[in-house]
Design brief:
This protein has 311 residues and is mainly alpha-helical. It contains 15 helices and no strands.
């Protein structure tokens, strides 16, 4: 196939039906501008569809390409441009608003919880419910945004994509731990980190320079924040649930919920895996140092549990 034929195929390609392209585009950061998007499309098309496509158009073909692209893409884009604008100004802005409100409220709740007058009050309960509701709406909107359209709930492809999304796990955490949030509002740290990076992904919709600078700072420390979130999920939440169950403050069911969520994340989340490796190293080191004082069945029991933690 000649480069000209590859160019024609590129112009006629239906991007809306390509799952691979949608996954590639959703993982781009920062979101490319309109002028950059064509270059990304050409590189992706050359790698995944037709290697004969020229990434950089020759100068004498540029004007011809501009005219061809206008007419060839008109039929496929004309119907979708209006809906995309509506989505940008509609549910995407609603998603950003929902997550931003949740971030604001959930950052205030732990502070208010230290005040004796407000701790455990109806006002705190109201804030927890509002924040949880907006997290659910915002994270749900994000999952809709990145899902393959049209959405087919019984499709294996749909669930294969959703089950590995961080926003899905954060959404499940808000719902599953809802009963714990009143007494331990720091649980909001889990969806807060996820929401922060979701909102930062849509910076073109956010026009405030100060907010954008905050997002840029967060993105520079993205791996550190995700690792701290993993430590928090594995250790802080786990220890709190364990002692809360022992003191009969919460139901023993939460241990099962906690372990199920961790098992769900462990195979796909490298930060959770690293947190477990650190914990395993520390515990083994402690047991070796104090082996003369620790009954033998404890190390054996721990080794059995750790070897089967994801099975």
């Amino acid at each position: 196939m000649t480069p000209e034929e590859a160019q024609k195929e590129f112009l006629e390609y239906d991007w809306s039906k390509s799952t691979l392209w949608q996954q590639y585009y959703n993982n781009l950061y920062p979101t490319p501008s309109a002028s950059q998007l064509t270059t990304f499309k050409r590189k992706w098309f050359k790698k995944n569809v037709n290697p004969n496509l020229e990434i950089q158009l020759k100068e004498h073909n540029y004007n011809k390409y501009q005219e061809e692209s206008k007419f060839s893409s008109f039929n496929s884009q004309a119907k979708s441009n209006e809906s995309k604008l509506l989505l940008s100004t509609g549910y995407k802005q609603w998603m950003i608003l929902s997550l931003s409100i949740s971030l604001l409220i959930s950052s205030i709740i732990p502070i208010l919880n230290f005040l004796p007058i407000i701790r455990g009050s109806k006002f705190t309960y109201l804030l927890v419910r509002i924040s949880s509701l907006f997290y659910i709406l915002g994270l749900g909107s994000h999952l809709y945004d990145i899902s393959i359209k049209p959405i087919k709930l019984l499709s294996i492809d749909f669930w294969q994509k959703i089950l590995i999304e961080e926003s899905f796990h954060s959404l499940i955490s808000v719902v599953a731990y809802f009963g714990l949030i009143y007494s331990f509002p720091m649980i909001f740290f889990i969806p807060a980190i996820t929401s922060l990076f979701i909102v930062s992904k849509y910076q073109p919709i956010v026009n405030n320079i100060q907010i954008i600078n905050i997002f840029d700072l967060a993105n520079k420390n993205k791996n550190k924040l995700y690792q701290r979130k993993a430590y928090f999920e594995v250790f802080v939440v786990g220890i709190y649930i364990f002692f809360a169950v022992l003191t009969r403050r919460i139901s023993i069911v939460y241990i099962s919920i906690y372990w199920s969520l961790i098992r769900l994340k462990y195979p796909i989340d490298p930060f959770v895996q690293y947190a477990f490796r650190v914990a395993n190293s520390q515990i083994n080191g402690f047991m070796k140092s104090y082996s003369n004082y620790i009954p033998g069945f404890i190390p054996r029991s721990y080794n059995w549990v750790s070897s089967n933690k994801v099975n």
